[in-house]
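Q: I'm writing up a methods section and want to include an example of the input and output format. Could you take the sequence below and give the corresponding predicted structure tokens, formatted cleanly so I can copy it straight into the document?
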Amino acid sequence: MENAQPELLLDLRDVAPVTQWARVGTVVRVSWLSGSDQERPWFHIRSYGVGTTDFVAGISILMMIVSAVSSAVISYLALSPGLVLHGFVWQLVTWPLASDTSFWTLWNAVVFWFTGRQLERELGKGRFGWMLVGITLSGAVLAVLLGLAFRVDAPQLGGLGTLAMMTVLIFIAENPRMPFFFGIPAWVLGLVIVILPLLQYVGARYWIGLLHFVLSLFAAAAVAKVAGLLSRYRFIPGRAYTRGERRRRRRVTPPRTPAGASNVVQGPWIVPEPPAREDEEMDALLDKIMAQGLDSLTARERRRLEELRQQRRAR
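A: Here is the clean output for your methods example:
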């Protein structure tokens, strides 16, 4: 799957201007939100394109080193409802970065990187990033509200584990029949991932943690649906984002004519929509690659994918 990436990504030099810095033999190319968000990483380190998933996973691993040097820094990043109410409002968004030095932190970063890259390819780096921010904020706000309701300084949040779990569950909900270990369907793994924490909370009689976990699942699902995922699940609240929203017809105001001149053609004029059928066809091919791997494409489908890629570049 990872080997297919160079064939699917557009050449950035053909899409938009690229800014370069040369530092100690390392070339860093920076790209912003212009152009095709699905095709462009935030920046390049040598030939590797760094997207939202890479950046978050990398920062999490970096915070492991910071934790080993100064654990006090991590305590200021982790979310404590009582501290948030006393002005530590940055903890609403920094709690996923409060990673300690352990094997599980590294494992969570790897799992987040693997599943997050698949979702980022579908959503684009910008929308995927906003989805992560939405999941982070919703979990933090729920924790503060529950702390206020029960008058306790709980639940406390910290580390990438919760965000990684939500990302994995969203990926599984998008691909419920994808085979995982030993051919086990993804939905079975997702069921295990949900049931185990529930049993742990019940066994510990940690009811506020149980309530926060359940509410966070629904909140993350709603955020993912707004971002454009989980559209098949009608019971999830939220208005799903669709690619067609970017292609709505725009009404163009006709130019003014001098007084006394006659108008040959009256407006308003409609700008024709760009072809959507080709985009749907390309999405179907990319979904097949994500579900079954690049080798699942026939030679004809590979040629068609390359044609669609060239057409998108020419727009």
